[in-house]
Amino acid sequence: TTTTRLYCAQSCLNQSWVDSSGDFVQWPFDGSYIDIMINHNGTPSSNQPAFVTGYFGQVCSFNASVKQAIYTSFIPLNNVSFTIEAWIKPTGYPNSTDHSIVGLCPSQTTRRCLHINTRNTKLYFGFFSDDLQGATTISLNQWIHTAFVFDATTKQQTIYLKGVQDGQASASSALLTSSSNLTIGMNEQGYIDHLSINRRAKSSCEILEIATLAAHFEFDSASSYTDSGPNAVATTSSTTSITSGYKNEAISFSGSSTSYFQAWGFTSLGVSNQAFSITFWIKPQTLSGTLVHLSSSPSGNGSTCFSLLGFASNGAIIAQVLTNNGTIG
């Protein structure tokens, strides 16, 4: 595969980022099939998909051999723009061709059968005719963000993998399906998490942020300690306050061992050879202590437990990671 390098004139600076407008359905799959937008709660098949710990909280686990699936009432996507997103982790490809993520298909009739799946190990976005296949082979046992966008104005279909365009084509018409239940996960082998449907065509920059931004903490009075990123990760704090900052406001720590801000659910930090970045502004009053601490336990201890960023004895900022052989350096 190749990566298209973005230059200043092509960057995301002038495009819209995460935006809740057009949100229609969202299934976080945190122990239930509930749509948090209230409209389309899911009903499981008789062989119910299981809930297990996944990318964010819990996820749905599907076993293709027993035809596990989730069904909802009709979702009107005919003649409109839409974006369908999900985190998926395939664990096998037992079927000869398709492993479904989402289907809205009352009959196999031209442009009346929405099917979004992995076909022959690549992402697939079809209306039954006007179909598009991604370019990248999807590896097993890895969490990936997928997005499928249709723009009703331009009639353009786009597949995104990990926030990057993986395929694009022009359709001759919008989707015309006007009835049928929506089906999630039929013949899927693996996990699906944070499935959402939005009735607008999201921008490439918005999808990139959703796929790559784990959390964003502004520490302003209006949001305080809330994650304003796409995942709404859980947080807690102790002996902190909100004060004037570099941009608007900032979090202030007392310097004691009981003064901290904690967030959890960062699955990617537990994946070997996974790139990551952490950025923030600081105004230290003393050049000592820990800036970012990573732990596998809420207590701050655990089998994985070390400071990612902190101050050395000479006041310099030092960074360290856990290497493949289990050492910190």
From TrEMBL:
InterPro entries: ConA-like_dom_sf, LamG-like
Protein's UniProt keywords contain Cell membrane: no
Record-annotated LamG-like jellyroll fold domain positions: 80-205
SMART domains listed in its UniProt record: LamGL
UniProt cross-references to Pfam families, sorted A to Z: Laminin_G_3
Keyword Disulfide bond in record: yes
Residue ranges crossing the lipid bilayer per the database entry: none
UniProt signal peptide: none
Keywords: Disulfide bond, Signal
Organism, as annotated: Rotaria sordida
Protein name per its UniProtKB record: LamG-like jellyroll fold domain-containing protein
Gene3D superfamilies for this protein: 2.60.120.200
